[in-house]
């Protein structure tokens, strides 16, 4: 029996939220809630990415055969549509990384001179996308395929999230009263 499908994904997302939330409770005692909440949400968003990309999308036995290499055929083996968003899998791949990009900026913005780490953080998010795709390639029972298009779309989502986060930090600093 294959564990997967939307119900399994939702349960694992909820469990990861509880687990990371418990860690956040302990961290908040030392660092305070203002800094802990964005960190918790960032870690939880990354856990959610792992769940939704590495848990099989169906409980049926996958028909994807293990491939030795990742597809570099841009707009490659991914199907046109996907069961969550009618706009297609590419749109979904972009959307799921936006929160992590925005939360990265919010987390780093909590620290003095933390925003200088935005570019390395963005590169780390792109690295997460590559790692996820390589894991999908190696574990054929996931019913997923490694595809360079997904890496590009994920990274685009992270970039959009970072830009939105930087805009939000800029607005917050404009309206924050000076001491």
UniProtKB/TrEMBL annotation:
Could you confirm whether the keyword Transmembrane helix appears in this record? Answer: yes
| Domain VanZ-like: residue ranges | 46-165
Query: Where does the chain cross the membrane?
Result: 6-27, 39-57, 91-108, 115-135, 155-175
Tell me any Pfam family this protein matches.
VanZ
Q: Which InterPro entries match?
A: VanZ-like
- Keywords attached to this entry: Membrane, Transmembrane, Transmembrane helix
Per its record, how is this protein called by name?
A: VanZ family protein
């Amino acid at each position: 029996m294959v564990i997967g499908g939307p119900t399994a994904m939702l349960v694992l997302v909820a469990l990861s939220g509880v687990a990371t939330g418990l860690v956040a409770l302990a961290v908040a005692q030392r660092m305070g809630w203002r800094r802990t909440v964005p960190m918790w949400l960032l870690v939880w968003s990354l856990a959610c990415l792992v769940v939704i990309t590495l848990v099989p999308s169906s409980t049926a036995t996958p028909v994807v055969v293990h491939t030795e290499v990742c597809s570099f055929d841009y707009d490659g083996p991914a199907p046109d549509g996907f069961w969550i968003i009618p706009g297609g899998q590419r749109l979904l791949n972009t959307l799921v990384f936006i929160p992590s990009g925005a939360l990265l900026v919010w987390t780093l913005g909590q620290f003095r001179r933390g925003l200088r780490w935005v570019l390395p953080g963005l590169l780390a998010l792109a690295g997460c996308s590559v790692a996820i795709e390589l894991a999908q390639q190696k574990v054929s029972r996931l019913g997923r395929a490694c595809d360079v298009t997904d890496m590009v779309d994920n990274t685009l989502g992270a970039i959009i999230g970072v830009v939105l986060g930087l805009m939000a930090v800029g607005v917050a600093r404009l309206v924050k009263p000076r001491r």
